[in-house]
Amino acid sequence: MQHYNHTGRLQNRSLLGHQSHVSVTTVVSLLVSSLIILENLLVLVAVLSRLRCSHRWVYVCIANITLSDLLTGVAYVVNICMSGGRTFGLTPQLWLFREGVLFVSLAASIFSLLLIAFERYTTMMAPMHQKSARQDVPAI
Fold first, then answer.
1. Which end of the chain is more exposed for a tag (fewer CB within 10 A), N or C?
2. Residues 34, 136: Cα–Cα separation, whole Å
3. Residue 55 CA: distances (Å) to CA of 10, 43, 137
4. pLDDT tens figures, 62-83
């Protein structure tokens, strides 16, 4: 507890009287986060079922960003549940772990977007030429 009081701001704060009610902002944030998690699960199932039929690189990229967004949503829900008055009960290591998981999952999501943007750029700038249908048919 002393690691939170280096500035002296906690001297007059009652730490034993935690809020027993949940704020409207917390409930709305949890509902939105749960909706994001469900949407990402639905997209992940759809992409993985499509990936089995067609092994295209873009589906792997979309599955990657969907999974990272799903993990970001889960990390955000954990962060909301561990915030507020519960923050004072966390050790510095647990606090850093909580924040670190959120930042790493957000970075993974951003780098996945960067990978998809690079893949789309290379697809548009250096398109692959399709073989003609006559070359694919074996000669009899």
1. C
2. 49
3. 56, 17, 22
4. 888 899 889 989 999 988 888 8
